[in-house]
Amino acid sequence: MNVHDSERLSGLLESTGLVPQQPGDGTADVVVFNTCAVRENADNKLYGNLGLLAQVKEKHPDMQIAVGGCLAQKDRETILRKAPWVDVVFGTHNVGSLPALLDRARHNNKAQLEILESLEVFPSTLPTKRDSVHSGWVSISVGCNNTCTFCIVPSLRGKERDRRPGEILAEIEALVADGVIEVTLLGQNVNSYGVEFGDRLAFGKLLRACGGIEGLERVRFTSPHPAAFTDDVIEAMAETPNVMPQLHMPLQSGSDKVLKEMRRSYRSKKFLGILEKVRENIPHAAITTDIIVGFPGETEEDFQATLDVVAASRFASAFTFQYSKRPGTPAAELEHQLPKAVVQERYERLTALQDRICAEENAKQVGRTVEVMVTAQSGKKAAETQRLSGRSTDQRLVHFSIPASGETPRPGDLVTIPITEAAAFHLVSDPASLAEYSVRRSRAGDAWDRAQADSCGAPATGPSGTKGVSLGMPLLPTRK
């Protein structure tokens, strides 16, 4: 969601004539921080970077700094008190106001703070500058009606608001017309979609409707809530060819006692039951999750229950977090906050178990032939290995080589290749010959070619024909 919002912010600012800052451009004219508030380290990163930018702004007083997103919604005046050199603070509900706020701050020579308590405009209706030509994010809802005791999001994003299906499908069709072949449907609890307009089966219907969009090859979604996961969604996933065999579903804890304290309205048995049904209907589905270690009052027995569920679930990968105390959440007021050393030791045991499972599950992929959508980013060792990278249908990362005389695919093209090697966090394909390698050129690859040609054209200009100013992150001084 934060990436999606950042693409909208970039699109908004570029529509006013700003252009992205490139290496060597010098100091940016505008710097925007789009913040998260889920974990404490977001606060530390923001204020640390703002402190470094103070030195830059002292030398370049015309540079504008804006802070938006969840942390801005939460901290509000605190940001301007701690960093009075910030020009604009805006929240989660008024992303579209940023250009006007920057103009007002410059005209009035005074910092602008604007935080709304309810959504002004759905982010998906704003201009966008996508990071990828082949993939797009589509927000189907914003906000959350749950009351998880560890989570600050509902108070910052508000109650769930659902877009109408026609609007969503129209946006997807527009993306496909622009060359996108993969979309990811976004919602805080994506499978509770429809609650606002009274259709509890709306999400499954939406998945099926995506299956009817010509040219849309891959559909993903994140993140569903186990309590709202229904059989009709599993059936829609299994029966809609372009819905990918991949599911990200947060577990958070394997302990029923801890789940109750978290106000997660499901228990471990239900969670495992959903996984069993998904795998019955989609045998090769890759399932990933989120897990919190060290929730207040978590005992060794509770933690062992989490290890047991992880062992039974066989997740393809997991995002594991140490509990972060967020002021304003019920969990922050609970007794029995755990010592850091205890949380760290449990975290290391959990990641060791999950890393082993990741490696074992990836090893099962060796020998399979998979279709991979090529991405623009390659692995860290790409120069050494001469491999390109992409994502398989189940979202696994695959680094692959091109056999002698093989066609080089473009980002967005699809290659069919055998998996020849596996590591814990990626797969490798080194086809032995052209017989094991094929490229399917796609509309997304054509869009990549067009984007590359456009980027080599004339300098960007604003609406009035004037050259835009740069938008980006200036080089920060090194800490001493």
UniProtKB/TrEMBL annotation:
[4Fe-4S] cluster binds at residues 144, 148, 151. The keyword Iron-sulfur applies. Residues 130-361 form the Radical SAM core domain. It comes from the Bacteria. Residues 363-433 form the TRAM domain. Its main location: cytoplasm. PANTHER family: CDK5 REGULATORY SUBUNIT-ASSOCIATED PROTEIN 1, MITOCHONDRIAL TRNA METHYLTHIOTRANSFERASE CDK5RAP1. This is tRNA-2-methylthio-N(6)-dimethylallyladenosine synthase. It comes from Paeniglutamicibacter kerguelensis.
